[in-house]
Design brief:
Layout (H helix, E strand, L loop, with lengths): L2 E10 L8 E9 L14 H9 L6 E6 L21 H7 L2 H14 L7 H14 L4 H12 L12
Antiparallel strand pairs: 1-2, 1-3
Helix pairs in contact: 2-5, 3-4
Length: about 160
């Protein structure tokens, strides 16, 4: 399959400011999905507007194949009332893991009155879903996305 969308040497500036996008190359093949992640002002929305044809680049070209291809996009607003770090918010997206780990901690702290059968059951479930690795998994995802785990979630867009 060939490329459906192709950006070649794309650059865009607003006014006299330094280029927001400079020398961008991107190929998207049929059936591929892409996601854009980055800090506020990094050019994500601008890049999507260039892909959809809402904006024209200062330099470079956008090739849509077939020529009648339309690109749709959905405006997205990041909730501003979410507190915590990026790592906290991503971890909170796995409530089953959080719940199992919290229950294990609660049962473990009961001392002599611990329900060993329930503790063993919770431990088996934690191992089955890989919840022991929650922190490592979150860290890996954030690293691959280029996000700082301890950065404030409210700083993302």
């Amino acid at each position: 399959m060939g490329d459906v969308l192709s950006l070649r040497g794309l650059s865009l500036s607003y006014g006299t400011a330094a280029p927001l996008l400079q020398g961008v190359d991107l190929q998207v093949a049929a059936g591929e999905r892409i996601g854009l992640v980055g800090r506020n002002g990094a050019g994500k929305s601008t890049l999507l507007r260039l892909l959809s044809g809402e904006l024209e680049p200062d330099r470079g070209e956008v090739v849509r194949s077939p020529s009648g291809l339309r690109v749709g996009r959905l405006e997205q607003e990041v909730p501003r009332d979410v507190a915590g770090t990026v790592s906290d918010v991503v971890g909170d997206g796995l409530p089953e893991f959080q719940s199992l780990l919290a229950e294990f901690a609660r049962l473990s702290e009961q001392g002599g009155e611990v329900d060993l059968v329930r503790l063993e059951e919770v431990q088996r479930r934690i191992e089955a879903v890989g919840a022991w690795d929650l922190e490592r998994r979150v860290s890996t995802v954030l690293s691959r996305l280029g996000l700082e785990p301890e950065g404030r979630f409210s700083g993302l867009s």
